[in-house]
Amino acid sequence: MEEQHSTAGQGLGIAGLIMGVLAIPLGIIPCTFFIALVFGAIGIVLSAIALTQANRGNGPKGLIISALVCSILGFSFAFLWGITLKNTSPIIKTIIKEIKEDGDLEEIFEDLGEDTEEILQDLEKAEEEIEKDECFDEREKALEDTLKALEGVE
Description:
Layout: H1 10-28, H2 33-57, H3 62-102, H4 105-132, H5 134-153
C-alpha cells in the first residue's frame, strides 16, 4: 500500500523559516538582539507546530527542520549577546551614574579627549619603534624582492 504525502505543516514551516532567517542576522548584531529573541522564539514555536502537523499528516519535514535550525541558531546568537550585555551592564550603570552626579558633560568629554591624546601619543611611539626595528626593514626588503620576482613571472 502506497503512502500518501500531504502538505501538512508547510505553511507554518515557511513562516518559521522566515522568522529564523530574520533572527540570525539580527541576533549577530548586538543592538538588535531583543528583536532576534522574539523572531527566534516565534520561529521555534511555529516550526514545532509545523513539525507536529507534518508528522500527523505524513508531510515532508525538510523545510520544517531547516526552519527549526535557523530559528534556534538566531535565538542562540541573540541569547549570547543578551548574556554578554547583562554582564557588562554594571559598568554601563556606573558610567551613567557618574554622568548624572557630575552633570557636566563637557568635563567628561574633555577627560576622554585627554585620554585619547595619550593613546595617540603611545601609538606614534610604537610606530617610531617599528620603523627603527632592523628586522622590519629586512622583512620589507624581502617582500619587495618577492613582488619583483612575481612581476617577472607574468
